[in-house]
Amino acid sequence: MDRTLLLNQSYEPVGAIPWKRAICLVMLGKVETVEEYEREVRSAKASFRVPAVVRLVSSFRRHKKRIKFSKQNVFARDRYKCSYCGAAGTSETLTCDHVLPRSRGGVTCFQNIATCCRECNSKKADRTPQEAGMSLRSIPHIPDWVPIIFRCGEMPDLWKPYVIH
């Protein structure tokens, strides 16, 4: 409950911000509260319910962010599913696989890394998917969005109507 979901004017998720920042934005009139947590915080003269979801009052131009390469962003891009067999997993049970193995000049980048379960990674070993008789369910690519939520189970219930479609 330490984060607040920030929506644009069209109720689309923009990001997650600290709840203290959300209260400041509400007080400045830059956002309006859409959903609140049960928890209250107090100042010297007032008490406030902690915002769970806020919406921007005015539009802003969003600059295209370069997505940082990380294991968690690869898992989020691939929706925590093995790119070969489709098995769902967690960050503890999944691995990252170099589609073109590093021993053959493959680099560590979004376009050459796929989420993989341990069984498929072991089966593929130091071969290309074609050599291993395996096929990718989707082509690895640079995501054009910033993952806000990695797994639906980790987000507050109040966020779900705005994030899951």
Which structural traits does this protein have?
165 residues; alpha+beta; DNA Binding (I), subunit A; 4-stranded mixed beta sheet; two-stranded antiparallel sheet; 4 helices; 6 strands; 26% strand
Q: Identify low-pLDDT runs.
A: 149-153
Distance between the termini: 22 Å
Tell me roughly what share of residues is in helical segments: 10-25%
Specify the biggest β-sheet. 4 strands, mixed
Textual characterization of the structure:
Helix content is 16%, strand content 26%. The protein folds into two domains: 3-63 and 155-163, no CATH class; 66-145, DNA Binding (I), subunit A, CATH 1.10.30.50. The protein has four helices and six strands; from the N terminus they run E-E-H-E-E-H-E-E-H-H. It is of the alpha+beta class and 165 residues long. A four-stranded mixed beta sheet has the order 2-1-4-3, covered by helices on one side. The protein has helices at 19-27, 71-77, 118-124, 160-163; strands spanning 3-7, 13-18, 31-42, 47-56, 94-98, 113-117. Mean pLDDT is 88; it is low at 149-153.
